[in-house]
Amino acid sequence: MNFLLYKKPYASFSLNDDEDSAFKLTDQVEIININVSHYLELCYTKGISELSDFEIAVGIIGVYQEKLLDRLSKRNKILEEIGDIVKKYSWVDDVIVAYDREEYLKEAYEANTEYAVADAVEETTKKVTEEVTKEVTKEVTEKNTLDMAKKMKNEKANINFISKVTGLSKDQIEKL
What angle do CA 20, 21, 26 make, to 5 degrees? Predict the structure, then answer.
């Protein structure tokens, strides 16, 4: 499988013993650029069962879809361990992404806090508006009722009639 976007690796190195530089602690390691979209296409067209363990291991590191990561890592214990490490350090609900879990959780907390504050402000504003509207409506209605009763009294309307129409007591009407 051709994972490389470029024919040459970015870097090559091996670890050598400090005391005996001829003694190599590791084989030659090459850093390559993986064509992830080409890899994902192969997973769907060629099929995971036809990929080598190396191809799957490289894919597990670069894959963005958690479901595909789970399918890739099921082949054997080593691939499962690689998949678990990738999930531990790069995880989102349905997507594996390029930043670590702590950063994601911090951003999610901050976003949820902002939404919670916005919702609380909106709900409080709505309640206060309803209460103020109710109070103002009550005051205006009372003032209009008193004004109407006063006008009716000035026009020499019967106090029982005024009381019946406005709902005010006779004592309230006489004080106007």
Answer: 105
